[in-house]
């Protein structure tokens, strides 16, 4: 699968990804980019009015919304909207599953980072982008990826094997290719390319992505059904104690909470 087959990621979202060390100047720059695109302008204003943000004052412009949201939060929202735009409006079931899995992983990673005093904004962005390779496969090779979904998997190694069999490349390899093609910060190479690698030893905020990905699957936000998943309690045991203690004891409660947040984003 050559790089020319990949769809371009929205330019505004790519710019947001590259502005990882944000300043007020970066906020204005990103705001001006958003204002130049009607779809992103509308999405940001809708989010400013949504229950996800619930500002106490009326928001009448993208600049006002941007200033109230702040650079880091605005960047995360733009990347989320960008992923949704990348998937287009006509979502196949695997594409919709990819979207929901990515957002669920981002929400879990953001919360656990916040509870563990890590960078919650980067955690959210990393969660959104960790499966960009799978999103690309499901978009460009939808028929082949449907076969991957139909087969299912016993564990992640089986999933990657099925992707290579039906698509000629697995989603981690595809993710690394896209990070390189789009000239994204190097931190995303390990996140997009190594989140299923048992030998990888990510540190800091990046270490939250593999368990957040697995937990999203276990809560029902999976793309390919795993026949022998670890239990909710087992997966929580991977997280650091501060986060582990804050997750609900009941998996259904967490799944319902995340589903409501995804639905709010989908309504934008």
Topology record:
Elements: H1 11-18, H2 24-35, H3 38-49, H4 62-69, H5 71-86, H6 93-115, H7 120-129, H8 132-140, H9 142-151, H10 156-167, H11 171-181, H12 187-194, H13 209-218, H14 232-236, H15 241-246, H16 251-266
Helix pairs in contact: 1-5, 2-4, 2-5, 3-4, 3-5, 5-7, 6-7, 6-8, 6-13, 8-9, 8-11, 9-10, 11-12
Architecture overview:
The protein has 2 domains: 8-86, no CATH class; 88-268, Hypothetical protein af1432 (Orthogonal Bundle). It has helices spanning 11-18, 24-35, 38-49, 62-69, 71-86, 93-115, 120-129, 132-140, 142-151, 156-167, 171-181, 187-194, 209-218, 232-236, 241-246, 251-266. The radius of gyration is 18 Å and the shape is globular. Helix 3 crosses helix 4 (62-69) and helix 6 packs antiparallel against helix 8 (132-140). The model has no long low-confidence stretch (mean pLDDT 88). By secondary structure, it is mostly helical.
Which strand-content bin applies to the residues?
under 5%
- Please name the fourth-level CATH homologous superfamily of the largest domain: Hypothetical protein af1432
Low-confidence stretches: none
Mean pLDDT reading: 88
Derived from helix and strand composition plus strand pairing, the structural class reads mainly alpha
Oligomer designation: single chain
Q: What is the third-level CATH name, the topology of the largest domain?
A: Hypothetical protein af1432
Known CATH architecture of the largest domain: Orthogonal Bundle
Spatial separation of the terminal alpha carbons: 33 Å
Query: What is the total tally of β strands?
Result: 0
H/E order of the elements? HHHHHHHHHHHHHHHH
